[in-house]
């Protein structure tokens, strides 16, 4: 297993997850609710930045590796899943939206692994629609974690859930896209199930 700066940043993202979740369960005597929201949102934003930064540095420094390519999406999915479950627990978003997003992430990750074993992983490589989905998710989660005032007269929770609905739509759209790409690979091939 190689160890370099990009992989360190990815591991940092994984290590932040229990800290991030624990912050929201601290008593008010240790951290007031508003500060929990701000701290949680900052940690999530830091994780999002390290997600971009580790990939950028891996390419820029020539430190890409098979292990890094495996760990990076795992770290992303773990922090997104933890955030969504936390937001449902805090009654800031709906459980059905979290289930759709988490379910899609599991399904597409499994599809990518299967395609990699078949030597056709590139057919389900990240597409632009997947990047839009991720951006909508990140904005939604940040707004819902923060849950404080940004624009007078506009509820951050309402705005966050608008982005969450958009993220769900893009999640389903991207899942259909990836399944269609995989189906093209399977067309005409005998597949052992």
From TrEMBL:
Protein name in the entry: CDP-diacylglycerol--glycerol-3-phosphate 3-phosphatidyltransferase
Entry's family note: Belongs to the CDP-alcohol phosphatidyltransferase class-I family.
Reactions mediated catalytically: a CDP-1,2-diacyl-sn-glycerol + sn-glycerol 3-phosphate = a 1,2-diacyl-sn-glycero-3-phospho-(1'-sn-glycero-3'-phosphate) + CMP + H(+)
Associated pathway: Phospholipid metabolism; phosphatidylglycerol biosynthesis; phosphatidylglycerol from CDP-diacylglycerol: step 1/2
Annotated GO CC locations: membrane
This protein's record includes keyword Metal-binding: no
Keyword flag Membrane: yes
Molecular function via GO: CDP-diacylglycerol-glycerol-3-phosphate 3-phosphatidyltransferase activity
Uppermost EC category: transferase
Assigned EC number: 2.7.8.5
Membrane topology: Multi-pass membrane protein
Compartments reported by the entry: Membrane
PANTHER family attached to this UniProt entry: CDP-DIACYLGLYCEROL--GLYCEROL-3-PHOSPHATE 3-PHOSPHATIDYLTRANSFERASE 1, CHLOROPLASTIC (PTHR14269:SF62), CDP-DIACYLGLYCEROL--GLYCEROL-3-PHOSPHATE 3-PHOSPHATIDYLTRANSFERASE-RELATED (PTHR14269)
GO biological process: glycerophospholipid biosynthetic process
Spans through the membrane: 6-26, 124-146, 158-179
Keywords, ordered alphabetically: Lipid biosynthesis, Lipid metabolism, Membrane, Phospholipid biosynthesis, Phospholipid metabolism, Transferase, Transmembrane, Transmembrane helix
């Amino acid at each position: 297993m190689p160890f370099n700066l990009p992989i360190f940043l990815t591991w940092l993202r994984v290590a932040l997850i229990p800290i991030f979740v624990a912050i929201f369960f601290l008593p008010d005597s240790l951290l007031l609710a508003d500060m929990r929201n701000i701290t949680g949102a900052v940690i999530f934003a830091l994780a999002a930045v390290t997600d971009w930064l580790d990939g950028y540095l891996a390419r820029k420094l020539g430190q890409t590796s098979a292990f890094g390519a495996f760990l990076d999406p795992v770290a992303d999915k773990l922090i997104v899943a933890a955030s969504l479950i936390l937001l449902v627990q805090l009654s800031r978003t709906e459980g059905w939206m979290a289930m759709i997003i988490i379910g899609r992430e599991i399904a597409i990750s499994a599809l990518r692994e299967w395609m990699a074993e078949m030597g056709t992983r590139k057919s389900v490589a990240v597409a632009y629609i997947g990047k839009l989905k991720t951006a909508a998710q990140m904005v939604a989660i940040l707004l819902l974690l923060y849950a404080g005032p940004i624009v007078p007269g506009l509820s951050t929770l309402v705005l966050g859930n608008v982005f969450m609905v958009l993220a769900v739509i893009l999640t389903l759209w991207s899942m259909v896209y990836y399944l269609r790409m995989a189906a093209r690979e399977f067309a005409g091939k005998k597949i052992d199930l």
